[in-house]
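URGENT: need a sanity check before tomorrow's submission.

F., can you look over the Precorrin-6A synthase [deacetylating] record below? I want to be sure the sequence and structure line up before it goes out.
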Amino acid sequence: MRHIYIVGIGTGNPEHLTVQAINTLNKVDVIFIPSKGAAKAELADVRKDICQRYVTNMAIRFVDYAVPVRQTADRSYVQSVDDWHAQISSTYERLFQDHLTEEGSGAFLVWGDPSLYDSTIRIIERVRARDRVALDYSVMPGITSIQALTASHRIPLNLVGKPVQITTGRRLTESFPGIVETAVVMLDGELAFSKIDDPDAYIYWGAYLGTEDEITIAGRLADVSDCIVATRTEARAKHGWIMDIYLLRKGSDFDDQA
Ligand SMILES: C[S@@+](CC[C@H](N)C(=O)[O-])C[C@H]1O[C@@H](n2cnc3c(N)ncnc32)[C@H](O)[C@@H]1O
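Structure tokens as predicted:
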């Protein structure tokens, strides 16, 4: 049966790759490389750089494929994502039929870790459910952008014995401030932090983490919010794209213990 490896590659620094990931990349028949258009060419370049550094098995084939663009017109967010995943499943199915033998193996290089705001696992499950191409799969963990953020700021993710919420910009105000003391915000195109008015909130922000363009800013939210907005706008214009993440915090270790 075909075997697909979903390999976490970390967030832009080739040294994030685990030994397990490197060994896996060197044993497959094909490595599939996505392209998402010129604006995100740098992300495809990180994958190519990783392969150049670590793939020493000359027999491995590289297959580029175009990632379908998500359509948003005339449909809800959920419908839009569902349609998009269906399209990607068809793309994967064709890739496996065209480039893998029935006993062949392939790898996808997934940004960060495959379990965090990534749908490769879901899409492979869809391909299996369609049952036109028999396959099994394995997942190799990678360093997430959350770990890259906390490492760059040299902070623990959680306060002692307290929970953390991982959320999106769209849903941030449902929980912070008020419900959780630590919120990690990803996929925030709307600068949700800039709408929070809380004198006790701190922010630890990072963009292009792990890459040579990494930028970090930290401080009391009220003091650094404008600076982050301006830095983000400038960086986005310069690169043509941005990936940023931040941790918001209120409270401190042991502040709820007598
Ligand atoms: C589709 S999610 C993928 C997350 C990824 N699977 C992970 O483990 O981090 C993309 C979001 O992750 C965050 N992100 C990923 N890489 C990043 C980086 N190098 N610097 C800052 N944020 C990053 C951003 O919030 C971005 O909007």
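My own read: Residues 11-12, 111-113, 116-118, 144-145, 148, 186-187, 206-210, 243-245 surround S-adenosylmethionine (CB under 6 Å). The longest strand covers residues 2-8. If you see anything odd, call me.
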